Amino acid sequence: MKLSLRTLNRTLLARQLLLARQDVPVVDAITHLVGLQAQTTTPPYLALWSRLQSFSVDDLSSLIEDRTLVRMTLMRGTLHLVAAPDCAALRPVLQPMLAKGLQNAYGPQLKSVDLDELVAEADSLLAEGPLTVADLGSRLLERWPDSTARALSFGAQLLSPMVRVPPSGVWGQSAMPSNGSLRQWSGLELPDTAPAGPMIERYLRAFGPASAADIAAWSKLTGLRPHINQLDLVKYQDPNGRELLDVPDGELTDEDAPAPVRYLPVYDNLLLSHADRTRVMSDEHRKRWGATKNGVFPQTFLVDGFVRGTWEIEETKAAATLVLTGYAKVSKRDQQALSREGAALLKFVAPGKSHDFRFTPA
Q1: Among the CATH numbers 3.30.70, 3.30.930, 1.10.3470, 1.10.1400, which is that of 281-360?
Q2: Domain extent listing, the chain
Q3: Cβ atoms within 10 A of the Cβ of 346, count?
Q4: What are the pLDDT digits (tens) for 53-99?
Q5: pTM of the prediction?
Q6: Three-state SS for 247?
C-alpha cells in the first residue's frame, strides 16, 4: 500500500500530539514521544506547550526537580529529557553508538587513556556528588595530564550513565551544567544490554510509518536491519516507492484531517527524527532552515502541517514581539491563526509584558 505525502504528514502530526493538544500527564507524553531533545532549557517546555492542554511551566519543572524526569545523553549523542526508567530501556541499546562517537570525536586525545579506568574514576568522583562539566574535566585531567579536560569529561559522559542535574534545565533558573551519577541521582542501575526491538517499536509509534533509514537517523544506530527483521511489523510504501515500516496497530490519519498552526522550539524531534523529512518540510525549506551558524537551528512554525517559516521573540523589559519570517506564501487567514496562537505563546513565554506580532512574508 502506497501512502501519500499528506497521509504521512497527518499521521506523524497525530502521533507527535500536534494534530490536537492532548489531555495527558506530562510523563506519559514524554514517554510516548521517547523523550524530548533537551540540549538547552526551553525546548522541552515549548514542545510540551504545543502538544498538551493547559500545560504550565511548573508541570515540567516539578518533575525535573523531584527526579521523575532526567536529562541524559541518548539518541544521536544528544541530551534528551526522559522518564527515569527509560534510561534502562534506551541507554544500553545506544551505548555502542555513543562509544563510537567518542572515538570519532576524541580518539587521538584519549589514545593513552584506559577507558574502563576513565569510567571507574568518573564514577568515583561523582560518588561524592554532582560536579560541573568543567570541574569533572579538571579532576580527571589530574589523572591523565596528557589528555584534555574536554575529551576526558565528554568521554566519561558518553561511557558512564550520567544525568544533567537541576537547576540546569529548569525554566527560569541558571546554573553551570553539572553531571551526576544516574545511580546516585535516581537509584537506578543500568543493565549491560537491552533489546533494540522495543525501542524500534516505540519509535514507530511516535514517528512512523518510517523507513529503516529514518530509524537510523533518529537513533544514529547502525546495523538495525537484523533487529527490524525480528519484529512483527506491517509494511507500506512512501510516494517514491520506498519501504516504510509500522507497528501492526498503528493508526493512519486521514490526509484531509485539519492541521492547526503550531509553533515548534529549536531541536524539536518532529524535524530531526527522519532521514527523509519531506513529510513535514520541503527539501528547499530544509536547506534554508539548516543554513545556520553553530548547528543551532531556528524555531519553526507549521501551517497546514508543514514548515512555512521561522520565529523568534524580541524582548525588552516591558514588551515582547513575536517575529515570524515566512519561507512560503501564507494566506491572510493563516496569518490570523498564527497571530492568535502567537498571542498564547507570548502569554506563556513572556507573561506580564505587552505583546506584539510581526510577520515578514516570503
Answers
A1: 3.30.70
A2: 1-261+268-279, 281-360
A3: 21
A4: 999 999 999 999 999 999 999 999 999 999 999 999 999 999 999 99
A5: 0.96
A6: coil
